[in-house]
Amino acid sequence: MNNLDYRGLAVLDAVAASGSFDKAALLLGISQSAVSQRIKALEDSCGRLLVVRGAPSVPTGLGQRLVVHFRHVKLMEAALDIDLGRDASLPALALALDADSLATWFAQALPALLAPPRCQFDIALADGERALRLVREGAAFACVAEGDGAGDAAVGTTATPLGLLRYTCVATPAFAGHWFGDGWLAEAVALAPAVVSERKQLARFVAQEFGAELAFPHHTMPVSAALDNCILHGVAYGLMPELSALSRIAAGQLIDLAPGRSWSTELWWHAWNIDTPFTRALTEHIVTSARRYLPQKIS
What's this model's pTM, rounded to 2 decimal places? Predict the structure, then answer.
């Protein structure tokens, strides 16, 4: 493969993003046959299959590597235009974040990131392995994920610690009085309705508190705002980010069911190592903002 056909790579990227040749044609404003011809020409040039045809059509391992390369080149070109002060459309920058970060510390960082506007954020809600996978596949430039990603991180990415997202176990005073009148006891946990996220943090917190895994009734709410509303409306208890809970505890809306104890998740910033002034400034700002709001892990 002496020279990459970037028009062909643009078509490959569209197929990877849309999952079909027909949808890629619509995205690019060309015919479906033109999409097929350009993919075939790219495969002939590489001497390898790049797309597994089907429903959906998905890139092969080499195809995905070419998609990642193409997206990085487009990002670097857009960043260079910005850094040189050229008139250019704002580059789209895909990030993957967990819902609690997006609702708390990242929301505080957004105004400075967007003023003046230097990119168009495309933020996907994703936790843990899914967030890391989006970065590995080139679908996201960076993500916030629990842990340093050792063994899961892609070659060519960097991992930077952000801090601890700390959770407090809370309920409304009325709910606590009804279900936890005698205190934070295993017997009460076994009966009181809880609300949990997909990450099952509450189960781990309960196990930490009582030294064993306990079964407890619970609702599952994958969106943090819905989970918080269940707690605030007094229909369940659960873990809430300390950044959201403290003001509500101070206002008397909530009480801490297990005073002095909390659950913490160590967050890291995983990003492709694309070294331009724009991407470097973005990473520096996000890391600085996170460390302003998140307590740091003590070694």
Answer: 0.78
